[in-house]
Amino acid sequence: MRPLFHPAIDDVTVEGILHALSDPVRASIYARLAGLDCAATCTALQQAGDRTIPKSSLSQHFRVLREAGLVRSERAGVEMHNTTRCAEIEQRFPGLIPAILNAHRMQIAGAPPPRPPARRTAAASVRKKAKAR
After folding, report:
1. Which of 30-39, 42-51, 85-94, 104-113 has the highest mean pLDDT?
2. Does domain 9-114 have CATH number 3.30.2000.30?
3. pLDDT at 43
4. Is the model's pLDDT at 42 over the cut of 80?
């Protein structure tokens, strides 16, 4: 069997993390795994919402999460035991993972995301000045 690739924590990038978690299935898998206190097998995380993920797809999702540096996987017989690297990532990018997981929880709960402050465009400024006259 081929050895599993786990990037060094110094090679983990914000872009890689965001790309890996941009897929809703992977975000769901990672959020569930981050909520556990122990390692979980791939099949234990096979349910994503109301659907079951095929094992072949699940292994690809875990590969992406692993190569982004989000999870550590170890073979145990025919199963893979997966744990998050939250503590390592927290040291490298403080607050990133908790912010992503909180946003994921809010999205699942149906809460609208916070709105950014409105930006004033040049055209809006001109209209406002014209009204003031």
Report:
1. 85-94
2. no
3. 76
4. no
- Best CA proximity match to 50, nearest among 105, 108, 110, 112: 108
Instruction: Please report, to the nearest 10 degrees, the dihedral formed by the alpha carbons of residues 97, 102, 108, 109 taken in order.
Output: 170
- Mean of the pLDDT values across residues 91-112? 90
3-state secondary structure the chain: CCCCCCCCHHHCCHHHHHHHCCCHHHHHHHHHHHCCCCCEECHHHCEECCEECCHHHHHHHHHHHHHCCCEEEEEECCEEEEEECHHHHHHHCCCHHHHHHHHHHHHHHCCCCCCCCCCCCHHHHHHHHHHHC
By the 8 A CB rule, do 69 and 12 touch?
Answer: yes
Mean pLDDT of 34-50: 80
Q: How far apart are CA 41 and CA 24, in angstroms?
A: 19
Q: What percent helix, strand, coil does the chain show, rounded to 5?
A: 50, 15, 35
